[in-house]
Amino acid sequence: MFEIVFLGTSASAPSIYRGLPSQAILAGEHRFLIDCGEGTQRQILRSGIGFKRLNKILLTHGHLDHILGLGGLMSTFARWENIEEVEIWGGQATLNRVQKLLFGVVLEFERLPIEIHLIDLNPGRIVQAKDFDVIAFPVTHRGSGNFGFIFQEQNRRPFLVEKAEALGVPAGPERGQLVKGNPITLADGRLITPDMVMGEEARGAKLVVIGDAGRTDNLLEYVADADVLVIEATFLDDEADTARDVGHITARQAARLALEANVKSLILTHVSRRYPERRIVAEARSVFPDAYVARDLDHFVVRRGLPAEKITDMPEPPPETDEETGLGGTP
């Protein structure tokens, strides 16, 4: 099981109701931050998850709306939080920009009580935990070094309690040994092997998170059979040409990807203030019914074989206009 908390869901610039891109992924005792737009640290506090163990930061790419919050967050970590080291993962072009931001401006004269590790991303497994892996894969967007991330639980074989009881396997350490794959010998001398009490192997939960993307045809193999796909929806289909020109996709394109990849649930983020949320939802659901538009501080649970479970009830933001945000132009 994974949990995802949306800290910022706007595209390019914040609005009254949406902050800049960032999500927290909770995986047991592990916590990851994906992207860190301006204002992320305040959203972390508002969400209630806090900073504890939030020391692995995965960057989808180096555009400012996805990294500018790192300056404030690292400054806070350096002064107030009991965090000894932080890992920041990104493509080389992204890390070059982060290096200048953190060590050329924000922390230039600091004697840091924490170690900040900048780790160059390459496609493949980047984290191997006890129960899950994190895998990076390439994404097409403007510039080089853009990545998406797969959070994949280890496959599991369920323990069949009814079969164990029928065979006379007592509750306790004997069953634990069978779960670990070890045979046991009962008091009457019978040998019980794991295959006698374990079910068929089942794939663990799969969560795929993609930031900005300019095409979807090269994502299918990575997204395939995901329980939840998180991806941008910066434009609607009537502006597909504009989306292509600036390296983004539409809500309809995201929905088609989810449909073709046999995804259980689709969560759209990085949305433009130019569109009411209901239009984005309507376009996506016309292709893929189990689609959502994330709102700031939305909290979802990802389980194997099940649609995304939303465990918050954030109010729908009203339609935004350039007059309300004080901003205009292409997101």
Describe, in plain words, how this protein is organized in 3D.
Helix content is 25%, strand content 24%. The radius of gyration is 22 Å and the shape is globular. It contains 11 helices and 17 strands. The strands form 3 sheets. It has an 8-stranded mixed β-sheet. A 7-stranded mixed β-sheet has the order 7-8-9-12-13-14-15, covered by helices on one side. It folds into 2 domains: 279 residues, 4-Layer Sandwich (Metallo-beta-lactamase, Chain A); 36 residues, no CATH class. The C terminus is likely disordered. With 331 residues, the protein is α/β, with parallel strands linked by helices. The longest helix is centred in the N-terminal third of the chain and has 15 residues. Strand 5, helix 4 and strand 6 form a beta-alpha-beta unit.
In short:
This protein is an alpha/beta fold and 331 residues long.
Radius of gyration: 22 Å
Distance between the termini: 34 Å
Q: How many helices does DSSP assign?
A: 11
Major β-sheet profile: 8 strands, mixed
Query: Can you give the helix content as a percent range?
Result: 25-40%
Tell me the domain tally: 2
Biggest sheet strand line-up: 6-5-4-3-2-1-16-17
Average pLDDT figure? 91
The H-and-E topology, N to C, reads as: EEEHEHHEHEEEEHHEEEHEHHEHEEEH
CATH superfamily of the largest domain: Ribonuclease Z/Hydroxyacylglutathione hydrolase-like
What's the CATH first level of the largest domain? Alpha Beta
CATH fold call of the largest domain: Metallo-beta-lactamase, Chain A
What is the subunit organization of this protein? single chain
Low-pLDDT stretches = 322-330
- Beta content comes to 15-25%
What structural class do helix, strand and pairing data support? alpha/beta
Specify the overall morphology.
Answer: globular
| Overall CATH architecture of the largest domain | 4-Layer Sandwich
What's the count of strands? 17
